[in-house]
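Today's session is about reading a structure prediction critically. Students often jump straight to the picture, but the first step is always the sequence itself: look for stretches that repeat, for charged clusters, for runs of hydrophobic residues. Only then move on to the predicted structure, which in these notes is written as discrete structure tokens rather than atom positions. Here is the chain we will use throughout the hour.
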Amino acid sequence: MSTEKKPNNKHQTGTSSISIEAFDFQQPNEQQAFDVDTDNKFVNKANRSQVSSKWWHSQFNMMLVSFGLLGLAAIMFVLLAPPPELNVAGSAQLDPTTQSLPDSEAPWNQNQLAEARSSSQEILSNLLDSKKKLESMGVSEWAPDRFESALQEAALGDDYYKKQEFKQALETYQSAVTNLESLFDVLPELVASKLAAGSNAIEQGKSELAAQLYTQVLQLEPSNIAAANGLERAEKLDEVMALLATAKTSIAEFEEANEIDKLIEAEKGLIEAKSIDDKFVRVEVALTDVKQRINERRFKLAMTKAYQALFTNRYSAARAGFAEALRLKPEDRSAQLAQQQALASDKTSSLSSLLQRASQHESNEQWTSALNNYRAVLQRDPNQIVAKMGVIRAGARQELDTKLLEVLADPLAISRKSVKASAQALLTDAQALVQRGDRLQQQITELESALSQSEANLKISLLSNQATEVTLQKVGSKRIVLGKFTKKNLVLKPGRYVVKGERLGYRDVRTEINLVPNISTTTFSVSCDSPIKSSSNG
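Below is the predicted structure for this chain, in token form.
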């Protein structure tokens, strides 16, 4: 039980509105009361009455202040008291020594939640950075599904964050970041693919497509030098293609009119196109072809002028003409021999020496040189019968020699009916000649052997997989359908053959076979085993 305490006078004097002197607190004791003069009793009584009145005024003010403080305390309690649902023990008053805070309000858990919230915000910042970078790279065009899936996962993390479930938000945000960052791994292959497609578009003359592809690469990798160079080429491609088209027109006009000026015009246009884009393959190929044509044309003109000079005994002009021809084509044998002839003619220009050299060339079966010498004699003296007969004889042997060299250069072609007929006629002409040198006899022997071997029967085996449709075609003949099989034995004549295999859903195969007598390989495989894979983007 609490007992009511007496008011503290010192405290009351501090709060009373009446000024209280020091003597007001000095109460007389009993001994002093009896010693007081009776004349002073009235005065002392009046004084005590005054003191008593001041003390009650102070007590009243103190009570007002106390009630005011109590009211203020009640208001603060109502405002600051926790809601009823947080009181684990309900309305019952718990002993302060046994009462505990909820787990969520424990300092350690509060620490963990704060740390999870901070980590979530940090990861969310990384996630937003990755999202912005990918969007700037046009991710919606090359990986829309994966990008949208990662964003949905990030939205789920937002839901956790709003519920203050920071641990789950942290894990979900981290997963979304991982999925977004995995999209950057696609970039190297994607960039390489677009660069290759851009290069192909340029070679095909598709400037808009090339520019679009290179722009996409620069969106993915702003510092990609190949894409920057490719974009620059694409911007100039239309101008290059126009020059290339003009050059092709000039080449066509040259082929029709045989005017070298047209080739020179084409060369100038192609050189200008190359100065704009020196990496354009089609321009380089066309320029090389035009230069070769110009070179060949100038070579022929130089040889013609040199021969004209030689036949009119202008040996200095002839030597200069043949030298020019050799400058254009240093390895040309005819120009070399003509130059030697010009030098020899300059030293010994008599008809007899020319006829003697022509006869010597005939003995050595050097028919071109012999023919040139006979013609040189006729240029000086058109009535030389020996030279006239020499031109006919050397010309015929030169033509026969040239044809024999062509046939023997490709023995497999003899297996074709048209070529075999020509070869047989050529052999008959060669065998009809009575005077044969070692060179001609060797050619006759080789041609007889080639014709004989073209009739040989060669056995080969084809292996397949019972699912491939196989066809066989001899070059120059119709195709034969062999069908599907595991193994097929064939007897074929020498020649060139093409074996093809086709199978639905698989890559076609093609094998070229050169069948010659005494062939070492007699078994060949033709089987479609490589399925065609479908490509997907994403």
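Discussion point for the tutorial: The chain has a mean pLDDT of 75.
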